[in-house]
Amino acid sequence: MELTVDKRWDLIDKISKQTVKFKKYKSTLKEVIGELTVKPLTGIPIAIAVLYGFWSVFSSFAGFFTDGFLVKLFDEHWLPWIQGAFPGGLHNWFYNLMVDVGHIQNGALVPSNSCFESFGALTSGLFVPFGVVLPAIFIFYLMMAVLEDVGYLPRLAVLVDTVLHKIGLHGYAIVPTILGFGCNVPAVTATRILETRKQRFLMMTLLGIFIPCGAQLGIMQEVIPEYMGLIILYLLFGYFVTGFILNKVFPGKTPEILIDVPPYQKPLTRNVMTKVWVRLSGFLKIAVPFVILGCLIVGVMYLTGTMDWLANLFGPIFTHWFGVPKETVGPLVAAFMRKDLAVAQLSAIEMTKYQMVTSVVLVSIYFPCLATFAMILKEGGKELLGALAVLVASTFIYGGLIHLIWILLGVA
Amino acid sequence: MNKKLSEMKYGEEGIVKNIEEDLRIKVSGIGIRIGKKLKMVTKQPIKGPVVVVVDKSTTSLGLGVADKIIVEVKK
Amino acid sequence: MKVLLMGHPNVGKSVLFNRLTGTNVTVSNYPGTTVDYTKGYMRLENKEVEVIDVPGTFSLEPKDKAEEVAVKMLKENRDAVVVCIIDSTKVERGLYLTLQIIEEGYPVVISSNMWDVAKDKNIQIDVEKLEQILGVPVVPTIAISGEGIKELVSKIKKAKSVEIETIVKKVGGET
Question: Can you count the helices (H) and strands (E) in chain B?
């Protein structure tokens, strides 16, 4: 038989009175730190310090490995070797797809000297995921795993609850959000911790549109570090504004936060490493095939002239509404597959600083990458159509808005 | 003196006197029940959640929830 | 026979699962990130037994998707033995879920985990008395260091289902 809720608690009270005794004890250091990190006066500065530290380690670690070691490996050894060893040449279409499309210099077609320009499946297709993105994702997941296992995240959730409540979410939503800065795919899965359909829909939409993934951050750090701050500012601004509007527009409840704040724990190396490994291997399984496929599709579209056709078709929208060169169509197509690939492509197009910022923001928001899209489809189902509508609207409005800001500032 | 959990001050302790009916099951899962002793640890600014300690474990509740819990505070 | 590991989020359930099965799984400190459940095998009396790491849940009345999954998994495995993992510093809440599972008729073993943290906080639990009242095995464990795991394994086969009325009578109450 089953008891009623009250009877069950009565029973528990009786059992615990006979078996559990709470004796006096001194608070431990862990608990003192625990309280300090959740009280606003001390907790908020600590949170800012933690996130800033996270960011500094992320950017310097990835840069150290990529610039100091992997770029040399790919550009000075791998690229020249495969350019020589692969049959065919710059005028062979298969060679173009697999190794190097070359570029025009003084009217002549010459081989590329870096894996950012070559755009072959075996050159850029390997360099982007392994050379640039892997170190970034590794350090990201390592730090994330430590923060999780130490028990810091619930405290962060309490601290940010007030702000996130204003956009229809609650403190918990910080977890999918931060995870999204690594990869949106597990972040979409993590929206399950949100309780109502409205919250999950809001979170998935915001993730898919405004949170740049670690792959994209890694490549931005590599090719356009000077614009990063501005781009992220635009994206976070979009995250809050869109969240605020969606919260007003969509019906449904935003439940109050109700969470446990566990004591701090020493993370176990083995647990942290397993977690990092599981996430990294998951990332590689998704990223590598998509980047290579992306290189091939974009390559085929260039070779067959489809890309020029698209660029001419959509050119007016790009140049007039968004104020970016029409060549940006290519990277936008690539962004369907992978954002990192798209940013790498953008970096090879000649444009002003402001056009670059606009186009990277556009690449970030206009469509979640294919893998994320598939995951939202699986998790969100029907809500997806709504998300797509929001997506199209925000891409146009936001892209135009940024252009307008540049015009008003007199720099466009 | 009885007051709402949301109105308790930092460091105040008290015993839960009443919880609104529809909320009872939900908060009992995190250890808050009538007759339990709890201590306010902190309140987040601008209508943020409260953080309380019950039976030596720390829990955070939204202000809307804390409004519906009445606590008898020790003088 | 199957073994289900059930308990609140943050009670070291995934670490215990690793100890029991030795397979690689993600372990998380944060409620929610281990929503996907993990399956593994352990040796019990020279037989391979399936062990399922059920997503953390506070009760059998689900309040989000992860908890729904947990309840579904319990109902789908009528023949399972349930290892209820409770946080030794929060026995009362742990018992709520445990009693619900006992009421459903499942044979139960209790792993009173994070025993070290309870000791730090000077919380004293009378394990024998608890066993006697509930009529199911109760094993103090520290999953992180592996203490108590062997004893827990040896008690799995001693798990049995108990009538809730019997428990109520033992504490001197009425149903």
Answer: 2, 6
Percent of chain A with pLDDT over 90: 3
Q: Enumerate the domain spans of chain A.
A: 32-82+111-409
> What is the per-residue pLDDT for A274?
80
pLDDT of C22: 63
C99 to A12: CB separation less than 8 angstroms, yes or no: yes
Nearest CB partner across the interface for C96, out of A12, A148, A275? A12
Cα A29–A55–A57 angle (5° rounding)? Answer: 80
User: Which residues in B lie closer than 8 A to residue A159 (C-beta atoms)?
Assistant: 44
CATH architecture of B2-73: Roll (2.30)
Q: How far apart are CA A220 and CA A389, in angstroms?
A: 28
Chain A residues within 8 A of C125 when measuring between CB atoms: 19-21
CATH architecture of the region C2-170: 3-Layer(aba) Sandwich (3.40)
Q: What CA–CA distance (Å, rounded) separates C115 from C147?
A: 9
Residue C74 tokens read as: 């319990």
Domain ranges of chain B: 2-73
- Identity (one letter) of the amino acid at B20? E
pTM above 0.90, yes or no: no
**C-alpha A167, offset from chain centre:** 20
CA–CA dist B55, C31 (Å, integer): 20
Contacts B58 to A, Cβ<8 Å: 34, 38, 260-263
- Which of C66, C124, C144 has the CB atom closest to A193's CB atom? C66
- Cα distances from A314 to residues A63, A196, A327, A332, in angstroms, run 35, 39, 10, 11
- What does the domain layout of chain C look like in residue ranges? 2-170
Assign C32 a pLDDT band (cuts: 50, 70, 90). Answer: very low
How does pLDDT run across B25-53, given as a tens digit for each residue? 778 777 788 888 888 888 888 778 889 98
Which of B25, B29, B56 comes nearest C89 by C-beta? B56
The predicted complex's ipTM stands at: 0.87
Q: Determine contact: A321 vs chain C, CB below 8 A.
A: no
